[in-house]
């Protein structure tokens, strides 16, 4: 019987099967950020433990630090400075590479790992962060863990695990012009529910996925955790190899040739069996936006807020009503009638150079509406530098956006900088949970283009609405 891509990744890293049915898995790469990694490193130092392989572990500053242009260890998050300094000291103590606050290569961990080629096809990659699944776009087995698991992996290079099931999502057809990877993953979650992939590793495949760039593939894998998947994978191909070649931690010379030969085997066999198969036709897909407090509360941007009265299941109806009350939206209200207080472009979902280019194309020569606070946070210092070399920063600034340094700020609220109480925000992030971006903040997830168009209009809008207003 053939193997799935995930089967191959699992079996190639399985060291031994244990009595309880779990298996001991070898870990190739360990990524740590200051919010959780500092905890693991401090615990290890107190216990007198050592890192088994410091060359395979990487420390990043991204979660707690402020994204203001002028920044240092001081942060608006209570006790945040202590986390930053403890993480720096831990990296130094254990001899690990640190992407520090103002390092030229600093950025959000799931952005800089690919751009440094820390992640490679066929590797196991872990990080105390749920969106580590982003890196499955490279044909790696990458997943989020807790700080205690991180400590165990640093010391032993292993983790004990029970193997998840296999799910395949085949995306057929073709995306219409202006429809993005963000629209696709929101539509899949809306159709299958936010709990639709519990217990599964999801392989995304099909002609639409094959046509995507690596940055688009990272976007759909990033939100696999919002689908409740253990993680996601996409088989590597020539686009993957081209993206990685020549990057700092990629193999070179004869080692590169040997690696590519091996990577060609990382695909699901034709006779592989999946525990669940989903076919999704993307032909008629249009721009999506969320209206509620879960990524599954997503709908076509031209549609209305759903009516709970149409839901026969009482528990689901109550859930819809709760989400609508929090978001202050009314049944059957057009989504495009919702006015905005803020717009945000950033996060590990949509902060790469292609995301910024697409948003800038919408913003060029225009300005955000009065009363809308607009912020752009590039995903890494490299992305920021590339955007500035292309003049994208000036487009954002001229349009009324703040141009920030990289980090996770404004994506999640942990006591630091945030959007205001009950403010309505259109955002490229991955989570619209209650208070995710601030106290009682109301977040609407969308693609960079939609965020840009909505910021200009002052209400939720797509590019067609923007063009109609411009021409009208």
Shape designation: globular
Which range does the strand content fall in? 15-25%
Uncertain stretches:
none
Q: Report the end-to-end length measured between terminal Cα atoms.
A: 61 Å
Spatial strand arrangement across the major sheet: 5-4-3-6-7
Largest sheet: 5 strands, parallel
What is the chains' assembly state? single chain
CATH topology of the largest domain: Aconitase, domain 3
Number of helices: 16
Total beta strands: 19
Q: List the domain count as a whole number.
A: 2
A few lines on this structure:
The chain is 33% helix and 17% strand.
List the helices and strands and how they pair.
Layout: H1 5-13, E1 14-17, E2 23-26, E3 29-33, H2 37-47, E4 57-60, H3 80-94, E5 97-99, H4 109-116, E6 124-127, E7 141-144, H5 147-156, E8 158-161, E9 165-172, H6 181-192, E10 200-205, H7 207-211, H8 214-222, E11 231-233, H9 238-244, H10 254-263, E12 276-281, E13 288-290, E14 298-300, H11 314-327, E15 342-345, H12 353-363, E16 373-376, H13 381-389, H14 392-398, E17 401-403, E18 424-427, E19 442-445, H15 448-457, H16 463-471
Parallel strand pairs: 3-4, 3-6, 4-5, 6-7, 9-10, 9-12, 10-11, 15-16, 15-18, 16-17, 18-19
Antiparallel strand pairs: 1-2, 2-8, 13-14
């Amino acid at each position: 019987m053939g193997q799935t891509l995930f089967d191959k990744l699992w079996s190639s890293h399985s060291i031994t099967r244990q009595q309880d049915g779990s298996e001991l898995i070898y870990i190739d790469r360990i990524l740590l950020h200051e919010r959780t990694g500092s905890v693991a490193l401090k615990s290890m130092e107190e216990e007198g433990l050592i890192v088994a392989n410091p060359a395979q572990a990487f420390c990043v500053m991204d979660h707690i630090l402020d994204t203001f242009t002028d920044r240092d260890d001081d942060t608006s998050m209570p006790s945040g400075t202590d986390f930053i300094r403890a993480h720096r000291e831990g990296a130094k103590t254990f001899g690990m590479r640190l992407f520090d606050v103002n390092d030229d290569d600093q950025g959000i961990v799931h952005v800089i790992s690919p751009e440094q080629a820390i992640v490679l096809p066929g590797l196991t990659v872990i990080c105390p962060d749920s969106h580590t699944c982003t890196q499955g776009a490279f044909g790696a087995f990458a997943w989020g863990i807790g700080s205690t698991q991180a400590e165990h992996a640093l010391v032993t290079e292993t983790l004990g695990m029970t193997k998840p099931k296999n799910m395949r999502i085949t995306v057929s057809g073709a995306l219409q012009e202006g429809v993005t990877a963000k629209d696709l993953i929101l539509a899949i979650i809306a159709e299958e529910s936010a709990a639709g992939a519990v217990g599964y590793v999801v392989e995304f495949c099909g002609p639409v996925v094959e046509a995507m760039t690596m940055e688009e593939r990272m976007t759909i894998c990033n939100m696999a955790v919002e689908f409740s998947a253990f993680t996601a994978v996409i088989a590597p191909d020539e686009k993957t190899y081209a993206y990685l070649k020549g990057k700092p931690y990629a193999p070179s010379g004869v080692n590169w040739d040997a690696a590519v030969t091996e990577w060609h085997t990382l695909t699901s066999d034709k006779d592989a069996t999946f525990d669940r198969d989903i076919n999704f036709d993307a032909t008629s897909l249009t721009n999506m936006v969320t209206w509620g407090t879960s990524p599954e509360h997503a709908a076509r941007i031209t549609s209305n807020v759903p009516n709970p009265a149409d839901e026969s299941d009482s528990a689901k109806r109550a859930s819809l009503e709760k989400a609508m009350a929090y978001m202050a939206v009314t049944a059957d209200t057009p989504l495009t009638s919702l006015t905005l207080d803020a717009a945000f472009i950033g996060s590990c979902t949509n902060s790469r150079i292609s995301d910024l280019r697409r948003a800038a194309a919408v913003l060029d020569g225009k300005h955000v509406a009065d009363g809308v606070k607009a912020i752009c946070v590039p995903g890494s210092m490299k992305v920021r530098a590339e955007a500035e070399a292309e003049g994208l920063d000036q487009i954002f600034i001229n349009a009324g956006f703040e141009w920030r340094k990289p980090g996770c700020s404004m994506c999640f609220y942990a006591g630091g900088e945030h959007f205001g109480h009950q403010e309505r925000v259109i955002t490229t992030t991955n989570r619209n949970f209650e208070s995710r971006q601030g106290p009682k903040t109301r977040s609407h997830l969308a693609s960079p283009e939609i965020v840009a168009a909505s910021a200009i209009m002052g209400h939720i809008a797509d590019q067609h609405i923007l063009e109609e207003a411009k021409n009208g």
